[in-house]
Amino acid sequence: MNAPVDFALLKTFRELFDRKQYNHRNSSLGDLVAVQLYEDLVTLGRSSLFAERVHRHECVANTRNLAVGKNSRRGDGTFGELVPTVAAITTEGLIVARGPVANIQIGAETKILAKSMIKQIDRVIGDLERQVDEFKSTGGNPITVAFVGINHASAYTSYEGQRPFPTDGKGGYRHPIQEAAEAEARLLARAKPRFFDFQILNFRATNVPPYPFEWVNHAQTGMEYSSALVRISREYDMRFR
Asked: Is residue 3 within 8 Å of 221, Cβ to Cβ?
């Protein structure tokens, strides 16, 4: 089942699982999802200020997710003012150019919980909390955003190399649907208050051929995300005018 609206972020998230094997050890996948937020903000068009700065290449998505001259932990997707002495990098098919930034105006983080959620939930929450602190440590007043995918499938298989690890009840591997509600409750109670905007992306994926994917509630997911885009657009106009 497709996402209700063809937003770049939701489409990119879906494509991590849909008709392909998901690799949970590929740390670049969160970046790939998070930076699509800026494409969607331009496409939605609710902030002319944001769009103008993007089109003038005054502001870009960060290539290294760090502000130049500032020590910081990597975030999945940051956006800010381009370092003046550097040319922006444009890519066919993308609206938002890439480049090093002098500051962080928007910081986005993506986490994906596909299985063994409760075992890793404290680490994930800790990572999210620390990332907010890092976004803010670079100075300014960044808008902080998080997207956390939670799997609701009745079974799931992860892989280490070619070796499969199914959620068969052995070795403590509970099925995703058995842990999803508790994982979401903990995230909303502990991590959400730290962010300006925080969205749970509820999905189902088994990670076995033919690698099906669906949103738990595709209409709600689209409405929640589009609402977040409006809030972020309005906040950008207020903070960075």
From this structure: yes
Give the C-alpha distances (Å, rounded to integers) separating 213 from 16, 67, 152, 181, 225: 9, 36, 11, 19, 18
Q: Does 2 reside within a domain?
A: no
Q: Is 150 in a helix, a strand, or coil? A: strand
Q: What letter does residue 159 receive in the DSSP assignment?
A: E
Retrieve residue 172's tokens: 């403590």
Does an H or E element contain 170, and which?
none
- Answer yes or no: is 99 within a domain: yes
Which tens digit of pLDDT belongs to each residue from 110-148? Answer: 999 999 999 999 999 999 999 999 999 888 899 999 999
- Single pTM value for the model: 0.91
Domain that holds residue 232: 8-239
Tokens 């591997």, located at residue: 173
- In the chain, the number of structural domains is 1
